[in-house]
Design a protein that fits this description.
The complex is a heterodimer. Chain A has a single domain, classed as ABC transporter involved in vitamin B12 uptake, BtuC (Orthogonal Bundle). In chain A, 72% of the residues lie in helices and 0% in strands. Chain A has twelve helices and no strands. By secondary structure, chain B is of the alpha/beta class. The chains are: A mainly alpha, B alpha/beta.
């Protein structure tokens, strides 16, 4: 019983960064912009959150800075792909690499270390790892509601309708007087902010920034978006599933039942299965990745 | 006159474009300054990247002794581990041996061998590559520059088809550590002060280099506590497993919650998550650091650190160059040579009872004398 509870909580904690990043991924991809940038957005968010928390001594200032950092790189990606019509994948790869370099550069500049920042104010107290401690972190709550909230925005609001329209048939949306690029700018910048929240969670839970601390989570989140077939709730479930696989891996590795390599490939196998269309067709938004002349 | 005409035309033109319906893809006026600002920011950021000394001399310590060149591994100075250790060793060589030391920090993804080649071409008395990554470059350069002395920290000595080590070229000193001996001691320490029959190990990437630490640690635990169990977990199977503190925290939390009180990590910055987990669990839960003294990462929760004396080893090699006793070959540094050890100082003395300290000193003597054989592979 106790083990089950601990496993569930661990699953939730592992899922939070995936949930934030995947929500950003759903939003941008539904607007037609490929979200290979999630990793970079998260890392930028994590670093900015650490800086904010370090200089202001308050984790909320960190969250705010992290959001700003995510917006900044979201805007950069948006400008490159919407204004200058750059190939979305090339721009995304460039941004991911740039964020790794920039965070490393500023880490050394600000903290004179190439490995990690000093300890900053974050969420969670010393000597408090009980079952309820998980819920003392406000970002956990935010992470739990982010997918339902996004589902509401996408299906029930005017902005959501337009996002879907520019992602499926931008020409039709433009004919009706919707500014395709303006909607896309908003969606991509918001996706930067959402993914950055995932980075904020990582950094503030860890109370510090370490070089490349996102460790590929952005790509797993993107996989969750695909497995969830670009629908927020399903993507959220995919995130929880991936997190559960990871939590299980932590448990069975201790017990030594299955080889750890086997369990850690579960998310990737699931993604392949989804892409191969074995769990219903995975149909991306029609205009995803398309560069309009 | 012409200018006035032009500006008038421009006015008309701009008013025309204002009147025109806003097309999709057209940027509204308020977006334009924002985007300009963003582009400028991006350019500045891009420019800053080039400011980072890539393959440029990072620092130089002056002296009139032997000319030494050091090329750092990824991360460079400030990694609080290997590179900083090498820097410290070279620094004290500059002070005590008047060595003239030039440091090179290769940038991310750049040609690491180029740094070594630059220093070798300058005919330095000694060129040091910090990290096993330089192994192949050192072998190649040693053949090209037979009159230059080379040293590789953590040099990966290959084995031939009979399993015998392949000796490095005669002008290369392969500096290796017997990490398993240090791990054995901290394993014994973890079992003696942990107050639990369960002891934890947290590895980074699941690979032989880290299995060495695990094997020594396990043997150390078993040496003092026959009925103890070691819970050994790894953060992953890719190099990312060395920089995933959140994963490290979850792994450590699950170990602590299973009743483990002391965990030893060999997992790079993933281990920082372990210290964070110890903090969250509170008093009575400890982590053991690796490579360098990690006490500062979580004061009060760091029982000790298994340290590799990269500084001593680098210093020692420079000294031998100065004395003219430098030789190529495989140099293995263990407890006997003070190449590995554990931290016992004013900061963590209170955590280690005197009786335990005495026991550890006994074990150390036994290992040095060869009475205890420490395994270096998992059986």
């Amino acid at each position: 019983m106790k083990l089950t509870l601990l496993l569930m909580l661990q699953t939730l904690r592992i899922a939070i960064p995936y949930l934030f990043a995947a929500s950003g991924g759903v939003l941008a991809e539904r607007a037609g912009i490929v979200s290979l940038t999630l990793e970079g957005f998260m890392l930028a968010g994590a670093f900015c959150a650490t800086l904010g928390s370090f200089y202001f001594g308050n984790p909320w200032a960190g969250v705010l800075m992290g959001l700003l950092g995510g917006c900044l790189f979201g805007a950069l990606h948006a400008v490159a792909t919407i204004r200058f019509k750059a190939d979305q994948i090339v721009s995304a790869v460039a941004i991911n690499l740039m964020v790794v370099g920039l965070t490393r550069f500023f880490l050394r500049l600000a903290f004179d270390s190439s490995s990690n920042s000093p300890r900053v104010a974050g969420f969670g107290r010393d000597g408090n790892a009980g079952a309820l401690a998980t819920f003392e972190n406000p970002l956990i709550w935010l992470g739990v509601i982010v997918m339902p909230a996004l589902a509401w925005v996408i299906t029930r609001t005017r902005f959501g309708l337009r996002v879907r329209a520019v992602g499926e048939k931008p020409e039709a949306a433009a004919t009706l007087g919707v500014s395709v690029s303006r909607i896309r700018y908003r969606a991509v910048i918001a996706s930067g902010a959402l993914a950055a929240l995932g980075g904020c969670y990582l950094a503030l839970d860890q109370h510090q920034f370490t070089d490349q601390m996102t460790a590929g989570r952005g790509f797993i989140a993107l996989a969750a978006v695909i497995v969830g077939r670009w629908m927020p709730i399903r993507a959220g479930i995919a995130c929880l599933l991936f997190a559960f696989a990871e939590a299980m891996q932590i448990q069975v590795q201790g017990a030594g039942v299955l080889p750890s390599q086997f369990v850690s490939m579960i998310p990737y196998v699931l993604t392949l299965v989804a892409l191969a269309g074995l769990v219903g067709r995975a149909v991306p938004p029609a205009a995803l990745g398309r560069v309009e002349g | 006159m012409v200018t006035a005409d032009l500006s008038a035309a421009r006015r008309i033109h701009s008013s025309l474009s204002l009147a025109a319906p806003i097309r999709a893809g057209d940027l509204s006026r308020f977006m334009r300054p924002l985007i300009t600002a963003l582009i400028v920011l991006a350019l500045v950021h891009g420019g800053l990247l080039f400011v980072q000394p890539t393959n440029a001399p990072a620092a130089e310590l002056a002296g009139d002794g032997p000319q030494v060149g050091v090329v750092f591994d990824l991360g460079g100075r400030g990694d609080k581990s290997f590179n900083d250790g090498a820097y410290l060793g070279a620094e004290s060589a500059a002070k005590k041996l008047q060595a003239r030391v030039q440091f090179i920090e290769p940038g991310d993804g750049s040609d690491r061998g180029a740094g070594l080649r630059l220093l070798a071409a300058e005919r330095r008395a000694l060129v040091v590559g910090v990290g096993f990554i330089f192994t192949d470059d050192l072998i190649e350069l040693a053949k090209e520059y037979p009159d230059v002395n080379f040293a590789g920290v953590d040099f990966a000595v290959g084995t031939d088809k009979f399993g015998d080590p392949i000796p490095p070229p005669p002008n290369v000193a392969a500096l290796k550590f017997r990490e398993e001996e240090g791990s054995f001691l901290v394993g014994a320490l973890a079992a003696l002060v942990g107050g639990s029959k369960k002891v934890g190990f947290l590895g980074g990437m699941d690979m032989p280099l880290i299995h060495k630490d695990e094997a020594g640690y396990r043997a150390g635990v078993m040496h003092v506590c026959k009925d103890c169990t070691v819970i050994a977990q790894y953060a992953g199977v890719t190099p990312e497993a060395f920089r995933n503190p959140s994963k490290g925290k979850e792994l450590a939390l699950s170990q602590y919650q299973q009743g483990v009180n002391v965990i030893f990590h060999a997992s790079g910055s993933t281990g920082l998550g372990m210290f964070e987990a110890a903090r969250a669990m509170g008093r009575g839960h400890y982590g053991i650091g690796v490579d360098a003294d990690q006490y500062g990462e979580a004061p009060g929760y760091v029982l000790t650190s298994m340290v590799k004396g990269v500084d001593n080893v680098v210093y020692d090699t420079i000294r031998r160059v100065k004395d003219g006793t430098f030789q190529g070959g495989i140099f293995s540094y263990g407890l006997k040579e003070k190449g590995v050890g554990y931290v016992y100082d004013a900061r963590n003395r209170a955590l280690i009872p005197d009786s335990v300290r005495a026991r550890l000193l006994d074990i150390e003597r036994d290992i040095v004398a060869g009475r205890i054989r420490v395994p270096s592979t998992r059986s």
